[in-house]
Amino acid sequence: MQNENKLSNRSLSLLWFGAAISIAEVMTGTLIAPLGLKDGMMAIIIGHIIGTLILFLAGVIGSQSKLASIESSRISFGKYGSYFFSVMNILQLIGWTAVMVITAAKAIDGVTLNVFNYQNTMLWCLIIGVVITGWVLAGFKNIEKLNFIAVGLLFVGSIILSFQIFGGAASSSAVEGTMTFGGAVELSAIMPISWLPLIADYTRFSERKKSGVMVSSVSYFIGSCWMYIIGLGAALYVGTTDIFVLLTAMGLGVVALIIILFSTVTTAFLDVYSAGISFINITSKVKEKTVVLATCVIGVILAMITPIEQYQDFLYLIGSVFVPLFAILLTEYFIFKQVSPDGNKLIDLKNAIIWIAGVFIYRYLMGFEFPIGVTLPAMVLIAILCILVEKGRVLCSKKS
C-alpha cells in the first residue's frame, strides 16, 4: 500500500462505512438488549461518541505525521517498543480475521439451512477466505470501485434489514441478562477503540489532512451505531440474541447472504492489510502483500479449527493492550508535542513502565460500574500519570 495513490474522502468514507457494517457489530448490539430499546440506544450512542473521538485523534496522528498506526508508537516507545506492539497488533488482527470468518460462516450456515436445507461451515470459511484474498489482490487502486459496489449493496441490505426489524414492531419483548448501562457504554466504545491500531494506516494517505480523518471517523460512527441498533432491535423484537436465529426468523434469504458476505470482506480486508503494515514495521525483507495473504490464510485456518466466535472477552483484551498504548501516545503527541520518532531511541523504559501500569489500571477499573464505561476514565488516569511522571522527570533534571 505504500506505493498506492492518495485516498480521496469518498474512498475513505466507503472504506470505513464498509468496515463498520459487519455481523460482529450486529451481534455485539444484541448483547445490549437487556437494557431495553431507549437505554440501549443511549448507551450505544454515548459509547460510540467516546470511542470515535479517540479514534479520530489517532487518525489525526496518521494524517499529520504520515506514519502508520503502529509505526507511530515509536514516538513514545522507541524502535524496539514498536516491535512489541507490532507483534501484538498482528496477533489481534489474525484473531479478528478468524472471528469475522467463523461468525460469517455460521451465519451463512443458518441462512442456507433455512433457504436451501444445506450446511457446510468449512466450505463457507474457504469461500470467504477466497473472496478476501481477491479483495487484497485487487489492491487499493481498484478497491474503491469494489467498495462502491459492496457498500452500496450493504447499504440497501441494511435498510431492508432495518425495516424488517422495526417496520411493523409495536412493542419489544424482554431479554434477560445482567448487562449494565456502563457495561453497554464500554461495549459500544470498545469497538471503535479496536480500530485504533489501524486507522492511521489509511488516514496517512488521505488527500485532505483534516477532512479525510473526519470523513473516516463519521462514516465509521454512523455505520457502527446503525449495526449495533439493528442488533439491539432484532434481539428485542424477535426475542433472542442469537444472530443466526434472527436471520432465519426474518426469512431474509439472499439479502442476508449478501449482507454477511460483503460485510465480512470489507471489514476483514482492513484487518489483513494492516497486519502486513505492522509486519513491515519490524522488517521490510518480506513483501507486504505476502504477509497480508499469510494473515488471511492463518485467520481462515484458525476459524476452521478453533471455536473462536465468543469474542466479548477478546474485545476487552484488545482494550487492555491498546487503550494504555494510545493514552500515552495521544498525551505525548498532543500535550508534549512529541510529533516524530527519535531515530536513536531503541526503547523508552519510562513509557513502557507507564504502559504496564496502564494495563493494570484498565483491568482494575473493569471491576467497577461507570456510567461512561471504562475506556475514558482509564485513558484520563493514564494521561495524568504520564503528565505527573514527565513533570517529575523535568524537576529532577533541573535539580541535578
Give a quick set of tags describing it.
400 residues; mainly alpha; Hydantoin permease; globular; transmembrane; Thia_CytX
Structure characterization notes:
- The protein is mainly α.
- The protein has a single domain, classed as Hydantoin permease (Orthogonal Bundle), CATH 1.10.4160.10.
- 77% of the residues lie in helices and 0% in strands.
- It has 14 helices and no strands.
- Helix 4 crosses helix 9 and helix 5 packs across helix 11.
- The longest helix has 46 residues.
- The radius of gyration is 21 Å and the shape is globular.
- The protein starts with 8 loop residues before the first helix and ends with a helix.
- The mean pLDDT is 84.
